[in-house]
Write a structure and sequence with these properties.
about 140 residues, mainly alpha, about 80% helix, elongated
Amino acid sequence: MEELSMVALSGCIWLQAFVVTLDTNSFTYPQVILIWGNFVAFYMINLILSAVPALQMYTIMFRLCSQPSYWITMALIVAVGMGPVQAFRYFKNLYGPSAINLLQQIEQTNGCTSLCFQILIISLCFQILQRVRDDP
């Protein structure tokens, strides 16, 4: 039973790391260190606790990490957990893109200059203000 709970907890840690990574628009060194440091710290702490014979976790992580089924389960948890999130993000950007999404699409397709971006941002701001004013 302890193995099952450790697999579930590991899956949550993996999923959290990937969700936060994919939701971040721009990275800084502290963000990368905190996101993936949490991931590394989880395994280090659990491996240390698994080495103490007096604890109930004795050898659990060693046994789990040596099994290919554990790693396959982690990959499946991430894939199944991230699938709906990515599908929702795709359809949201396809049918109702935000101003940021529009700017990113223009940058990727046209290679817009900074002056072009300034003009686009101003026009998008006017469009947003128009929507806010028109909505009751």
